[in-house]
Each structure stands twice: as structure tokens, then as C-alpha cells.
Automatic annotation (TrEMBL):
Protein name per the record: Putative ring-cleaving dioxygenase MhqO
E.C. no: 1.13.11.-
GO function term, MF aspect, one: dioxygenase activity
Cyclic nucleotide-binding domain location: 78-115
PROSITE patterns: CNMP_BINDING_3 (PS50042), VOC (PS51819)
Keyword terms, alphabetized: Dioxygenase, Oxidoreductase
Amino acid sequence: MMLQQIKGLHHITSMAGDAQKNSDFFTKTLGLRRVKKTVNFDAPDVYHLYYGDEVGTPGSVMTYFPFPHIARGKPGTGEVGETLFAVPKGSLPFWRERLSALNVGEISESEVFGEKRLHFVGPDHDAFALVEVDNDDRAGWLRGDVAEAEAIRGFHGASLRLRDSGATSELLGFMGYEKVDSKDDWTRYAIANGNGADVIDIETLPSANSARQGAGSVHHIAFAVEDRAAQLEVRKALMDTGYNVTPVIDRNYFWAIYFRTPGGVLFEVATNEPGFDADEDTAHLGEALKLPQQYESYRAKIEEILTPIED
């Protein structure tokens, strides 16, 4: 059996230290739009910041929990290794010059599975790569200072660092991903007819230490389904296969279910509905602090605790 409901990535959620540095990096350095400024549902004294294209299209959204005093994470197995953003063919020289001028760290180039990549790290040593992708018709956010010819289109995908890839490979196959290539320690899986954020690369590192989560670590990686009906079908199928899946959780902008993979990575399946314009106009996404209804009565206290973010 192979599921047909999953359409690629929905979002990737990581942890950060300083909220202002995080916001500046994604909006001013990478040229993405901050599409939501809200709080962590489980810790409302911590921001939850979302960045993406104009409307936060599933497959474009990078999100962060900035914990002010968090220790830096230690990379290793059992986690998302590198988040891959798609950029137009021929744009890497622009990005190399831009990132270098803005003092972004650890810039290097490589070619993986025939694709040119520019690797770099974020403010918390988060691992990213810009990947040149041909014929990606997704629209980037064009009201920053990055032009259409270079603007990030959304995710290309992500890599997983695992000690043993076998069970996770089987899971990806069950979720609708097909093995398309392999080289050395790397295996590529892709989903057909997805949303553009279609690639998962597994790096197998049998002797590496386990990761320790912290600032710069990916907390979870979310896969997109169209609606709640499709999500319930996926949930039932995963549970029938033996996975321990959470109940459906309302995250205001999507509904979410979570489960831990055999390799240790936390997977989420999120709906494309209702979207980030559910509680504010598209023209003003990400400007005001939006709170889940259960925290609205605590707004004054929450705003007192959170350090304001300057745009």
C-alpha cells in the first residue's frame, strides 16, 4: 500500500535563540516574508514565527520557536540535517555574493544528485542550502530586496541524518515517496505531482553520535495534505501500520498530527486549510501578535514577557 494524500512538505519547524536575529535573517537576509507572529501553543511566553512566500503557501513555510536562553543544539543522527530551499537556475552566484556581504557563515558549494547547492548556516548554526531548480513555477516573495530572478521559491526538500535508514525508507515509501537516486551514503526520495517541496534525502551515518536538540535544531518536519478528510485517512493508515499518532490538534492555521519515526525524527502531517489569512488580512500578514483564543485573556501579560520584534 502507498498513500496518495501527501503532497510534499508543509513546513519545517526549528528552534532559535534570539527572536530579533531570527526574524532579521529570514526577512532581510533570505528575503522571505514573515507571515505570522504568534506564540508556541505549549509555551505562550515563547514566540512562534513563520516565514514563507506572500501567503505562506504550504511547502514554503519555515517556522521557529525562539527560546531566549536555549543552548545550541549538537548535530548528529536522528534529526533533519539540512533544509533545502529552491532558487532559480543561475542564481547561486548572486546568493553567494549576497550571503558573503551579509557575513553569513560557512558558505560552500557542492553538487548533489546533479543539482548545484550553496550551503550556509543561520544565526544559530542552522544548516541550509539553496538549490538551483529548473522550471519551478512557484512565486517568491518580491516585496523584499531580492528580485524575481533570484527569489527563494519555497522548499526543495530536506535531508534526514540517520544511523540506519531501512525503517525510515520503508515509511517514506508508505507515505508516497519513491526512491529516485543514491550515491555513497545518500539516498534520494521524491514524491510525484507534489507541491514543489518534494524531496527527502537520507544520509546514513552508522557510527555517528545522536543529535542533541537545541538552538539551530529542527524540532519537526511537516508533510502537507489537502484537507482534514485526507489527514484522517493518513492517520488511520499510519495507526493501522503500528505508528503511535497523536489526535488531530487545531493549530489555528492548519490541523496537525504527529508521530515519531523509527530513525528518531518527529514527523507531522498538516492540512493546507485554513491558511495563514484565517485571522488577518493577506496585506498585513505577520505584523500583529496573534494569539490562540485560549491565551487571548492573558494578552497583556504575554506581551509584557515577549521582547518586541522590530521590523
